[in-house]
Amino acid sequence: MSNCCCKNKFEDPKLEILQKYLAEIKNTRGALIPALQKAQEVYGYLPSKVMQNISRELKIPFSRVYGVATFYAQFHLKPRGRNIIRVCTGTACHVKGADNILQGIQETLGIKSGETTSDLRFTLETVACLGACGLAPAIMINEDTYGRLTPAEAVKVLEQYK
Ligand code: FES
Questions:
Q1: Is the CA virtual torsion 30, 36, 41, 43 positive or negative?
Q2: 42 C-alpha vs ligand 1 centroid, how far in Å?
Q3: pLDDT tens for each residue of 25-62
Q4: Ligand 1 centroid to residue 103 C-alpha, Å
Q5: Is 127 touching ligand 1 by the criterion CB < 6 Å?
Q6: Edge to edge, what strands does the sheet with 139-141 contain?
Q7: pLDDT tens-digit profile of 87-115?
Q8: Could you tell me what percentage of the chain is helix, strand and coil, using 3-state DSSP and rounding each to the nearest 5?
């Protein structure tokens, strides 16, 4: 049995990955956004303790770290679901009944747009256009696009995602 203390230096493997990355970039100009992106990639979102860690390591005030994290839509301060549902509410989809699809999904999952189910299975979002207007009404789940759906079909599609 080894008595080496180094092995357990990082009890949290995610923290170890982040710390290594921060050590590489901490003297680089403009390191904050890449640091936040890496943290989100590793943790799935940006917990407060992780932003505090970034603040400490990069010697940037926490208020600035928090300000940047809340400014950009790419960053998420709450846990996200394993599956991200994006319901398009753009004009083409709106005309073809996107509101009914959104309502059907909201009622089925018991969450509103911008929320995540308590089991972290789904996060529900609305977007202005998925670039698939010819398929209106369209939704995306992760990288998969579904079009010309009825509300019932949209709800049925969710079953494929665990
Ligand atoms: S408006 Fe819905 S995909 Fe463009």
A1: positive
A2: 31
A3: 999 999 999 999 999 999 999 999 999 999 999 999 99
A4: 17
A5: no
A6: 122-127, 83-88, 139-141, 144-146
A7: 999 999 999 999 999 999 999 999 999 99
A8: 50, 10, 40
